[in-house]
Amino acid sequence: MSDLKAQFDAATEAAKQLPERPDNDTMLKLYSHFKQATEGDVSGPKPGFFDFVGTAKYEAWEKLKGLTSDEAMKKYIDLVKRLGGKF
Q: Burial code of 34-57, b = ≥16 C-beta within 10 A, e = fewer?
């Protein structure tokens, strides 16, 4: 396992133990960077109009289209560190 992947895995666990829950915008950033790092560019149909949460997640992930997995991992790690994640 690469050092970056190990750090990413540690950050993923640390994100679950943050001192306080981040605001919704920050949660969307965590979600979208995690998805981009693990699955690549967004795929599948956009959720329906009345699925507000699903649509927000889809759109946040869609904004990262073209970002490499490694870059998404680095940005996720940095965000968790700024939020006080310990790893």
A: bbbbeeeebeeeeeeeeeeeeebb
pTM of the predicted model, to two decimals?
Answer: 0.93
The encoded tokens of residue 14 equal 């640390």
Domains in the chain: boundaries: 3-82
The CATH class given to the 3-82 domain equals mainly alpha
The DSSP call for residue 22 is P
Cβ atoms of residues 62 and 54 within 8 Å: no
Q: Is the dihedral of CA 74, 72, 58, 13 positive or negative?
A: negative
Confirm if 17 and 86 have CB atoms less than 8 A apart: yes
Note the pLDDT tens digit of each residue in 32-68.
999 999 999 999 999 998 999 999 999 999 999 999 9
